[in-house]
Amino acid sequence: MFHVGQYRPLRLITQTSLSSMCLKLMLSRPVAFAQVWKSWFSRHSLVGNKNIILMGPPGAGKTTTGRIVGQKLGCPVIDIDDDVLETTWNMSVSEKLQDVGNEQFLEEEGKALLKFSASGSVISLTGSNPMHAAGMQHMKKNGIIVYLDVPTTVIMSRLNSMKVDRIVGQSPGVSLKDILQFRKQFYRRWYDIRVLCGGDIAAEAVAEKVLDAVKRYQNSELETFISTRSNRSGRSMEKDSQKYFSDVVTEGLAPDGGLFVPERGLPKFTAGEWQSLIEATYTERAQVILERCIHPADIPASKLAEFIAAAYGENFTCSKIAPVRHLAGNQFLLELFHGPTASFKDFALQMVPHIFAYCIPRSCNYLVLVATSGDTGSAVLDGFSRLHDTDKQRIAVMNFFPEDGVSPIQKSQMIGCQKENAWAVGVKSDFDFCQTAIKQIFTNSDYTGFLTVEYGTALAAANSINWARLLPQIVYHASAYLDLVHQGIIPFGSPVDVCIPTGNFGNILSALYAKMMGIPIRKCICASNENNVLTDFIRTGVYDLRGRKLIPTFSPAVDILKSSNLERYLHLIANGDGQLVTQLYHQLENQHHFQLRKDLLEKLQQDLVAGWCSEEDCLAAIHSVYSTTGYILDTHTAVAKVVADRLQDRTCPIIISSTAHYSKFAPAILRALRIAEINQNPLSQLHLLSSYSPLPPVHWGLLETLKKKGNEDHQVCAADMGLLMSHIETLIQNHFL
């Protein structure tokens, strides 16, 4: 049986017949007419002269949904199959297909679309319309294309129940499933809005989702951002003071020193929507999640797809991007080190440069400033160096890192990642100084104003203080849970715990955001090394830096005492009380400590538990896991493993974030594995590790970077604000002038 359409559409309501009905009602019942007209106008203004065009595979419910949407809006309803094609051809669609064959059918179908025009209507396309480029370009000119995204397994089930075994474009020997998968590329090319449709969702609910999605598409003003240090009730409501996604990407830090957060919070997915992503690939999940977090007025879906493809393409060594590996018992590793610089930072920093280049105005040059405790540096240098040449001419990046506070391989990697628009500067201090210095530079309006006026250059941030850094990290926490469901480890809805080695609080905050968006995460376990200020804070509510000095450890990426992204979380649990957040952080700045109210601490402890790991226990965990499994943990993952062993209650699976590849910390790994210590250069250390045939293998990207000549060349600066600003000015002069 060949499928034409599951439902017959309603009678086509023309503009003339609609006007006639309204005229009769107005003359006979003026009060009733006023009520109907008000309702119709509020709905119809959603569309105006634009068409709402429903697109999707056969069996997606386009005709039924279109009919309901048209009823709700009081708009004409047009089904391309029944009202255009069969009228034009004077024969059924199935007869036409038999008459001309697949290829000619698609061409004839496209020609019919090119001759069609309508306005202010709800239009249901055929499943094959999107395969004709010229026809779709014609439709898109006066329409908002809504993609009804239904999982392939659901479509197959529906088509099977309808006894459909063949669709347009299907060749002999090609399965129905294969052609449905093939068509997805065309659907993704054309849509403006995606509506996720699970297996059990009713057509009425789909129609409401379509209307909500169209409202969102047409009203970007609802998706504004505020500072963690501003009050919702007291902020200015002037339009010119509102901040949108593009603004916060460009500006990084709020003018008052706070961090930007979405004013109305993050979007929430239903259980059905998450379940529709169980079979999806990592990049498909990323596309869906990020579309809901970034308004299409800031980045259209098609452009976002380009960025995702560039970020997670051949530069990742694993096709699964962020695979979940069983470790032992109920412990699973989320491997986040398959990117080009071998750490979780690649997930954001392979994408953020593309987002940044798209969002910034073309009239100004930008210098991106970054502070790193280790992994961010190479990731940001690599990411921004991959931009197109035209973008590299107007965007440069300067990375400040503690000269003696990162591993030898991390330093060699950062220096090796330097390119014509990307530089690494070692600072004779620790990470906290580097991060504080950048914040002070951003809030120094005299200095930033001078750079803009004198050199036409603005400053921007790529640390996790930038909101765009956090969004791609939400994706991998959600994806890890969906992978466990897909593997049959848990049914959807069963909880998991996550354990994350944490310093600046960005990674664990992203897990908390995933939980808010509907992923069933029970507890987020914060794992600290001997710089355990966060562990103490989560246990007591007291954030106390008095008398604390940073301790260099084997896990330098979490050698942090001032956790920037904690501010976003405190703003969240304080229900947006910017005045309280301002008070806490002023107290931290001036008195080096603050204490949470009891009610806020109770809220925090509903989400978070914490523990810390000594250096000895870290090395012992690496040795133990290798001895029993053959798998090598990096030092940060080992910190998380130790804390997970102590704090998990074993009533549900626990996902441990493996945030970096062990290759980056070869001396510590060699020591943990009790291999005789060697005084060799980083490249020799990696070759030695590789000789043990470890699991996973030594990271190829690190090997390639360390093989480059000239890895010793980089600038070194004293811990002095004046000197840092001088370095910035010199770079601007050399690159942009």
Features:
737 residues, alpha/beta, Rossmann fold, five-stranded parallel sheet, 33 helices, 48% helix, 13% strand
Explain what you see:
This protein is an alpha/beta fold and 737 residues long. Among the domains are: 51-219, P-loop containing nucleotide triphosphate hydrolases (Rossmann fold), CATH 3.40.50; 365-376 and 383-455 and 713-736, Rossmann fold (3-Layer(aba) Sandwich). It is built from 33 helices and 20 strands. A 6-stranded mixed β-sheet has the order 8-9-19-14-15-18, sandwiched between helices. The longest helix is centred in the middle third of the chain and has 20 residues, at 467-486. Keywords: Amino-acid biosynthesis, Pyridoxal phosphate. GO terms for molecular function: pyridoxal phosphate binding. This is THNS1 protein.
